[in-house]
Automatic annotation (TrEMBL):
InterPro entries in UniProt: CheY-like_superfamily (IPR011006), Cyclic_di-GMP/3'3'-cGAMP_PDE (IPR052020), Sig_transdc_resp-reg_receiver (IPR001789)
Entry keyword Ribosomal protein: no
Pfam families: HD_5 (PF13487), Response_reg (PF00072)
Name of the protein described by the UniProt record: Response regulator
Keyword Cytoplasm (UniProt): no
Alphabetic keyword roster: Phosphoprotein
Residues carrying 4-aspartylphosphate: 55
SUPFAM superfamilies according to UniProt: CheY-like
All residue ranges annotated as the Response regulatory domain in the record: 6-121
Species per Swiss-Prot/TrEMBL record: Thalassospira tepidiphila MCCC 1A03514
BP GO terms, sorted: phosphorelay signal transduction system
Length: 400
């Protein structure tokens, strides 16, 4: 069995701590801290303790407040308190709030203290063993789901992996309380696709247009995902985030009934942005123009969150460097990567011969929006050739 971390005794009386060292030497591994501030320094430095025994009456911070902080810094540590009779009411209140496993009256008999600490060590073993079991179950279950998704459609799984990386990048900076939860939600967001017929799944992977009935089936996949994820221990919050991933900020979208605005869980609001961002970003380069395009549908996104994510993720596009490329750079691109200000060197034409935009013009916001509508209904000749960057650009209005 793995050896437990040491026990930490905290008291502002150095003589009392010295006496404990003499009495308890050889009974179990332990350390001491003179006062609450020194104890907190040890925890903040990353030291691990199975049990923390603290005196109630100390300067700077009493035992209840100290152990409440310890519970935040080291949730697995079993907390105990030494208290005088006059402090019993406070101690009972602390126990009821869940910070403290046991308390001892001062003066405390050595045998009682030793027996209490040993009980605390057993409690620590139970906590950590259960946690390890749950984590192994969680990891195994997630691994099965992600492998199923990867086998089902590698392209969709690849986009989910990229969304997870974006989540990992932004989580702490947007103040997300459990970053692992956000990344996992992004990874499992498309798991509902396992319920789709192969032909719909293939068209999704190839980003081909869907028929209305097919779009409705796809729209409901977050409900399937929630049911799958809810069966895994500790993933109830992740299941809720995935279920609401297509709920728009204004309350529209799926599901039809539910929260709106900032009442939508933060994780779901993040996924709403990344689901759409993933449809227009081709490579690892995320640029301002991508966010400009998202803003064409402001009803979908939390505007403050969108600004935060743009500030974190958006990079400078080297193809727009006017110093290095004073006449711009030419690119063969797919239509989903077309950006505002691109200069068309070829026509944008459907496969049935309809020209939507003619070459020799700069692409405007309105034209991008119009093109996105047409892409739902028609297939186009791709790739097209554009010139990007260079001289000042003025969006033209060519096209049929």
């Amino acid at each position: 069995m793995t050896q437990n971390p040491p026990v930490l005794f905290v008291d502002d009386d150095e003589n009392l701590l010295m006496g404990l060292k003499r009495k308890l030497r050889g009974k179990f591994d332990f350390e001491t801290a003179v006062g609450p501030l020194q104890a907190l320094e040890k925890f903040k430095a990353g030291n691990k303790y199975a049990v923390c025994v603290a005196d109630m009456r100390m300067p700077d911070m009493d035992g209840v407040k100290l152990l409440a902080e310890v519970a935040k810094l080291s949730p697995d540590t079993v907390n105990m308190m030494l208290t005088g009779n006059a402090d019993q009411h406070t101690a009972v209140e602390a126990i009821n709030r869940g910070h403290i496993f046991r308390f001892f009256n001062k003066p405390c008999e050595d045998e009682d203290l030793i027996a209490g600490v040993k009980a605390g060590l057993r409690q620590y073993q139970l906590i950590t063993a259960e946690k390890a079991l749950i984590e192994q179950t969680l990891a195994g279950s997630v691994k099965v789901l992600t492998e199923v998704l990867a086998q089902l459609n590698p392209a969709i799984f690849g986009k989910a992996m990229r969304a997870k990386l974006w989540c990992d990048t932004i989580a702490k900076q947007i103040g997300y309380p459990h970053p692992w939860e956000l990344g996992l939600a992004a990874l499992l967001a498309p798991i509902g696709y396992v319920s789709l017929p192969p032909e719909i799944l293939a068209r999704l992977g190839d980003e081909k247009p869907l028929q209305p009935l097919e779009r409705d089936v796809v729209r409901r996949t977050p409900e399937v995902a929630r049911k799958l994820i809810s069966n895994i221990p500790r993933l109830e919050q992740v299941a809720g985030i995935v279920y609401l991933q297509n709920r728009n900020f204004d309350g529209s979208g799926f599901p039809a009934e539910g929260p709106l605005g900032t009442e939508i869980p933060l994780g779901a609001r993040v996924l709403r942005i990344f689901n759409d961002l993933g449809k227009i970003v081709e490579s690892d380069l995320v640029v301002k123009q991508h966010f400009d395009e998202l803003r064409h549908k402001p009803e979908r996104y939390d505007p403050e969150l969108l600004n935060q994510i743009e500030a974190i993720l958006a990079q400078e596009d080297p193809s727009y460097d006017k110093v290095a490329y004073p006449t711009g750079t030419e690119h063969d691109i797919y239509l989903k990567n077309l950006r505002i200000g691109d200069f068309l060197l070829t026509d944008i034409e459907t496969r049935d011969g309809h020209i939507l935009l003619t070459h020799g013009n700069y692409v405007s916001e309105i034209q991008i929006q119009r093109l996105r509508v047409f892409q739902e209904l028609h297939q186009f000749h791709e790739p097209i050739r554009v010139r990007r960057g260079g001289h000042d650009q003025v969006a033209g209005s060519g096209g049929a």
